[in-house]
Amino acid sequence: MSPHRLLSACGIALFLAAWLPGAWPPAMAQDYPAVLDNHRIELPRDHGSHPAFRTEWWYVTGWMSAGGGREMGVQITFFRNRPGIAEDSSSSFAPKQLLFAHAALADPEAGRLLHDQRSARAGFGIARAEQGRTDVRIDDWSLVLEGATYVARIAAREFDLELRFSATQGVLLQGHNGYSRKGPRAGQASYYYSRPQLALTGSVTLRPDSGTPRGGARKMQVEGRAWLDHEWSSQAMAEEAVGWDWIGINLDDGGALMAFRMRDAGGGVFWAGGTHRSAGGRVRVLRPAEVHFTPLRRWRSPRTGADYPVAMRVRIGQVQSAGMIIELEPVMEDQELDSRASTGTVYWEGAVRVRRGGKPVGRGYLELTGYWQPLKL
User: Residue 175 has what pLDDT?
Assistant: First the structure.
């Protein structure tokens, strides 16, 4: 095992140890900052970490072409968590901030999702999430904002990523000026903004053991479009909710669409919302009654038994209005990400093609959580 792999493995072990009985004093009720509807997101300051809040993530998804008609989806996510453990301890080993990362390639030639993960506590020069600017790292994985371009470097088991995501549009604030409701109570909310229509360039290297039929290590130059979300919150997910369905779509006309629904235990809608920015720049915040997800086809995982609605029809707007109806078709059905070794959950994270009236209108990602078992944040 290389030093990098060993450090990552130790990070996972340290994370698990933090939760073992007796490892640290029990977590006390923490005074996490509230998410307020009158708060204004300030950039560039808020591109960075917010360590006082409970949970935070930087989440990049995109489509890329490697030439010759070959297309792949890519997902890179860095999570930060303040668990509220041993915060009065002076030990450098105290797990005051935990960092996790996932990376995945949806490559139809491989026939499965290629993915890897990292986890560690902040410190020791191994992991950090900087305040004031986007600079999150775990060992040899990183996502850094340089000017108007995010630079991602990922050294995974089956692939390497050297990617750049350059802004072509302004920031899209979700909800009310970045205050995004996740339930009927005011505290059930997050601060949330997106960077749609990022210009993706760089390289992907597939290792010999990735399972691609051509074999051998292969480095490919890629280009495409991506989407970045940055979201932070102090509130755990509402007890009534078991998971969510989410889409982030780069529309071919230059527009952008984010929509989600929080599902209850009976499969109904606990809450919903979203934002549509037209090609002309007009922003429309979607109310819960204006977001509708309808499964078109399901896929059952042979590994976990989870049953996912991998093809969807999404309607934006009231039934009596024209609105927008789109259909999502996955680039491949098996895009399940098993992260039981790090964050302890299983979910489906998939590259999808988007059609409207039978015509291609965009590409993006569909995220499905809580289908394996109720999601706990």
Answer: 95
